[in-house]
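Problem: given the chain below (351 residues), write out its structure.
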Amino acid sequence: MSEPPRLTPVADALEPLLAGSKPLDQARIAIADALGLIAAEPARTSGPVPPLAVALRDGIAVASADIVGATPYAPVILTDMPPAVRSGATLPPATDAVIPAAAAIPAGRLVEIGQAAYPGEQVATAGSDLAGDIQILGRGDLVTPELRLALATAGMTDIAVLRASFAMTPGGDPVVRDWLAARLRALGLTETGEPEAGLIASFGESAGAFANRAPMPVARGLALRPGDNAGTAMASDGRPVILLPERFDGAIAAFYALILPVVARLTARRVNTHTLPLGAKIASTIGCTDVALLHVVDGRYEPLIVGAVTLQALLRADAVALIPPESEGAAAGTPLAAIPIGNPLMPEPSS
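Solution.
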C-alpha cells in the first residue's frame, strides 16, 4: 500500500515566496485618488494648520477687549461695524473672537454691541488642528478618508503610494472570490490583470492547471487545517502565487496563513498580532498549523473553533490565531498571539 503524500509545512511553503517578494514600486498620485491605497513614504506638515486663526462659525469678528461687559441692556458702543466672517475664514487683524451678527445693532453712525466675548471664542487658533512639522501618516499606512482629509487640509496635493495589485485566475466559487477580492482591496490592493499583478490567487481547477505549468517549484498539499489542499507557486519573474481551495473554509485559512504574510512583505508592513490570555483550553494537531477563531470576552480569547472554519464561528470571531505545528494546544490562561480580523496588517516600526 502506498503511503499518503506528505503535507508541506506552512512555513516551508511560505519561505520562498517571502524570500522572493520585494516591496513594490511607488508612484506619486493626487490625494483625491489615494483613498484606500498604501503610503510609500511619510507625509509631514510644512507648517501649522490652520496657518492663522480662523472663524468656527458665521458671524462678526471682534476684539474681545473692546466689548468687555457688553450686554443687550448695557451695550458697548463702537465707531465701526465689525467685519463679517464665514466659518473657516481667516480672522481679520486685531480680532480674536467671533460673535453672532445679530449682536451688532447700527445706531446712526455708531454700532451697539450687545454681547461680550472671551479671547478665542468661536475661533480655531493657528496650529490648533495640526502643529507644524508633524507626521500625518507613515510608510505602510492605509490612506483612510480621515487621513485624506488631513492631508488635503494641510495643503498637500499628492502623495507617494505603493502600487500594490492582485489578480485572480478564472474558476472557483464566485462568492469566495468576491470575499477574497474585498479582503485584498481593504488591505490597499487593487485588482488588475495577471501580467501586471504583484500577487496572483488561483482557485480550484485553475489552481491545479497553474500548478502544472508553474515555472517554479510548487508546494501543493499543506499541513494546514482547514486548507490542506492549498498551495504556493511562483511565476517566472518571481511573483508569488497562492493556490486556493474552492471552499470558503480553506480559502480563509490560506488567506491568514499565506496571503497576509505575502501582502505584508509586498507593502512594507507586518502582520498585526494582539496577545491575550486564553479563556479556555484549546487542543491542536501536532504536525499541522491549525487555524483558531477567537472571540474576545472580558480581555480574554474565547476559542470558537480550532482546525476548522464555520460561518457561525466566523461571524462571531474577533481574531484568528495560527497554532504552530509543534503545539498540542494551550491551557486556559496561556497568552496567545492572534491576528485582529479588523486590523490584520500594520506598518513596520520606524527605523
